[in-house]
Amino acid sequence: MDTIKKTDTCIINTYARIPVVFVKGEGSTLWDDQGNSYTDFLAGIAVASLGHCHPGVTKAIADQAATLVHVSNLYYTEPQAELASLLVEKSFADKVFFANSGAEANEAAIKLARRYFNEKGQPERFKIITMTQSFHGRTMAALSATGQDKIKEGFSPLVEGFVHCPLNDLEALTTLADDSVCAVMMECVQGEGGVLPVNADYIKAVRQLCDEKGILLIFDEVQTGMGRCGTLFAHELFDVKPDIMTLAKALGNGLPIGAMLANEEAAKGFSLGSHGTTFGGTPLVTSAALYVLETISNPDFLKETRDKGEYLKEKLTSLMAKHPSIKAVRGKGLLVGMELEGGAAEIVVKAMKKGFILNAIQGKVLRFAPPLVITRAEIDALATALDGLLE
After folding, report:
1. Mind listing the pLDDT tens digit for each residue in 173-202?
2. Is the residue at 42 inside a domain?
3. pTM
4. Straight-line distance from the first to the last Cα atom of the chain, in angstroms, rounded to the nearest whole number
5. What is the pLDDT of residue 172?
6. Cis omega before residue 19 (within 30°)?
7. Of 240, 275, 296, which residue sits at a domain end?
8. Rounded to whole angstroms, how far apart are CA atoms 352 and 37?
9. pLDDT > 70: what percent of the chain?
């Protein structure tokens, strides 16, 4: 029984998998079991930001695996302490909670926001405003927070207390922000929603509104953080700080790790025994994440990411004049979306036959989230291929 047949036979069918078996990766290149090579413009959905099998990440994993893998959070470990310290140093935050995924990090943020007001004697403040077209994860609370109905189908009753508001609509948000609201939760760029960036004036106004009403502001940076948008965290593009932020995906460059960061005040919502996890922040994953954070946070690395992001957008935008089926090119850094009239999934299949890995979202948007180490030559090759595919 081959790999595809074993998978389809033995694994619950929740993914529309493309029939290719990957066996090796290096940098921005993947190889399948037939020896075909592909340039990866998805990076495991914005995960492998340093590329596949980065030697520094590999060494960090191997060295730690030979030393200490797991002891639980009943004890202290050096890699976890070092990673938390560096995250605090590089961000707005004062405290960190480690989890295993973006959904878990968002669950922690939701729980923290609610418990913060409960501890203040205001249990009536439990509602969280999130944005339509948002995506915050697949666990029940994160699912309920997500502003896409198709993600929620069949899972009712949902967790109560979430209300949705159109992105960039300050009037609607202001109307919803009453005394029952504990937090506003939002992405700086809605990755799964179609690569939709927040407006600079809007996000600043949201911060001001939250300050005026005593509401916590949560930024979900699971997809946009760790250099993806050209700054270490996407909210830095707008000179706005949250009270709580969530990270995952690229933090471990492929190893499962999530993190919830909070300022000193918001962190008061958690106390001994109020939240926990068995595997969150093991020595193995935090050792890898420490190397990733040290590398990506280098100012020269981030500048190069910004420059390549602009280059990618320029190459994609240049195709618009020739191909009227392209309706928009948008994004921040190396998180870019190309909106088509439709048929994005068909382009993904055709691109794969040409040796390029892309992603289709919302039926009509091509999402580009390559490793941050992608080269300009690889971007040129992609643009040439798309030019032919869009004929």
Report:
1. 999 999 999 999 999 999 999 999 999 999
2. yes
3. 0.97
4. 39
5. 98
6. no
7. 296
8. 10
9. 100
Q: Give domain status of residue 230, yes or no.
A: yes
Q: What is the pLDDT of residues 195-215, one digit of tens each?
A: 999 999 999 999 999 999 999
Residue-range definition of the domain harbouring residue 317:
3-54+299-389
Residues 38 and 74 in one domain: no
> What is the total count of domains within the chain?
2
Specify the residue for token string 């029952």: 180
Q: Report pLDDT digits (tens) over 296-340.
A: 999 999 999 999 999 999 999 999 999 999 999 999 999 999 999
Active site residues: 135, 220, 249
Smallest Cα–Cα separation from 357: which of 128, 37, 70? 37
What number of H helices and E strands is found in the chain?
14, 17
Of the candidates 92, 87, 266, 121, the one whose C-alpha atom is nearest the C-alpha of residue 183 is 266
Same domain for 211 and 222, yes or no, is yes
CATH number (domain holding residue 214): 3.40.640.10
Strand locations in the chain (E): 22-26, 29-32, 37-40, 95-99, 127-131, 162-165, 181-186, 189-190, 196-197, 216-220, 244-247, 258-262, 326-332, 335-340, 356-357, 359-361, 365-368
